[in-house]
Write a structure and sequence with these properties.
With 331 residues, the protein is an alpha/beta fold. It folds into two domains: 13-100, Beta-Lactamase, CATH 3.30.450; 107-326, 3-Layer(aba) Sandwich (Rossmann fold). 36% of the residues lie in helices and 26% in strands. The protein has helices spanning 50-66, 107-110, 114-120, 139-154, 190-198, 213-222, 238-249, 255-265, 293-301, 307-330; strands at 20-23, 31-33, 43-44, 72-77, 80-89, 92-100, 127-133, 156-162, 171-173, 176-182, 204-207, 228-234, 266-275, 281-288. The strands form two sheets. It has an eight-stranded mixed β-sheet, sandwiched between helices. A six-stranded antiparallel β-sheet has the order 3-2-1-6-5-4, with helices on one face. A hairpin with a 2-residue loop joins strand 4 (72-77) and strand 5 (80-89).
Length: 331
């Protein structure tokens, strides 16, 4: 594994490993967060990077001029793609850049346990499948990998609704095909755009995140219509993700209907945590809900914290079943 390039020796942004770049503030220095081995976090940019940062900042300003209503956008610089969010501070706008992967890796390559793959790759799967975790935990990559792996395995049509598109999924994947679309980000615009996606006849729908009431309600209502809907939720645990989904959806739907839809429509919740370092490690927990009467009953009653015991039992059972399957395969 190559040693990370230091801030003093780097002359190109693409040479650096980091989580976010805070670029273009009117008076503050450009800074990089989560640089491996850095003496401080965030770390001020070195002088050798000034020319490359100036070019990157100019691209951000041009893209913002072309998309004045956008809160986030993507751009490419020096053969690297970035997701750019706008941070409106007291002194002016700062661009927050995050590198985007050039490809979507298979679930196994991401470090997903084999025991979980059997559930995530089950044939005929439908409902709402949530990938949850903290910010910067790789949720979008995992969600896209689920879509890509299932298209390879089973074929079919997938469509995405993203804002903005972050990872390259459009195209053929085995016998399957994916079409990526950008959904409008304005209040009250999601429902109509999402229903248009449903009319496209897909087997799989990827929506990048549940972060508001409208999205939560629409996805829950669609979860019982036979599609597989894959999405992400920012949360620190499986139970927190479920509680957040309920709290958002119940603002738009009757409370009883919300709990019923969660019990009948949720396929599973995958929690992941990305441990950074010289060798990043993915830690995961999977609560499976499809065909699990005890867990579904807890969802109907709203006892999300009680699902912790079920989660532990399920994980132990998945590991045992996977080990038995491996022994049979080796016999």
């Amino acid at each position: 594994m190559r040693e990370p390039i230091s801030m003093n020796s780097a002359s190109k942004v693409r040479e650096l490993d980091f989580s976010d770049l805070y670029l273009g503030h009117p008076s503050l220095e450009d800074r990089f967060s989560d640089v491996p081995g850095a003496p401080a976090n965030p770390l001020c940019a070195g002088p050798a990077l000034s020319e490359d940062l100036a070019r990157l900042g100019a691209l951000c300003r041009l893209r913002r001029q072309a998309m004045p209503a956008a809160h986030a956008f993507t751009l490419s610089h020096d053969e690297v793609s970035y997701r750019v969010a706008l941070l409106h501070s007291a002194a002016g706008i700062t661009f927050v850049l995050r590198k985007m992967a050039a490809s979507v890796e298979p679930l196994a390559a991401l470090g997903m346990p084999q025991a979980y793959l059997r559930q995530l790759m089950a044939g005929g799967l439908s409902g709402l499948l949530i990938v949850c975790g903290a910010a910067k935990s790789g949720k979008t990559m995992t969600a896209c990998a689920i879509v890509k792996d299932r298209l390879h395995a089973f074929g079919g049509v997938a469509v995405t609704g993203e804002s903005p598109i972050e990872l390259p999924l459009e195209g053929n994947h085995g016998q399957g095909v994916c079409f990526q679309t950008v959904l409008p980000g304005g209040r009250g615009q999601f429902a109509g755009a999402f229903r248009q996606l449903l009319r496209a006849g897909p087997q799989i729908i990827l929506v990048d995140e549940i972060a508001d009431q409208e999205t939560a309600a629409e996805l829950l209502q669609a979860s019982v219509n036979g599609h597989l809907i894959v999405t992400t939720v920012q949360a620190e645990s499986v139970s927190q993700a479920l509680g957040k989904l309920y709290a958002l959806a119940a603002h738009r739907l009757p409370e009883h209907s919300t709990r019923t839809l969660m019990a009948d429509g949720l396929a599973g919740v995958l929690y992941q945590q990305l441990q950074r370092g010289p060798k990043p490690m993915l830690r995961t927990e999977l609560l499976w809900l499809k065909g699990m009467p005890a867990a579904q009953a807890l969802l109907r009653s709203g006892d999300y914290d009680m699902l912790g015991s079920d989660l532990k039992r399920q994980m132990a059972g998945m590991i045992t079943a996977n080990a038995a399957a491996q022994r049979r395969a080796e016999a």
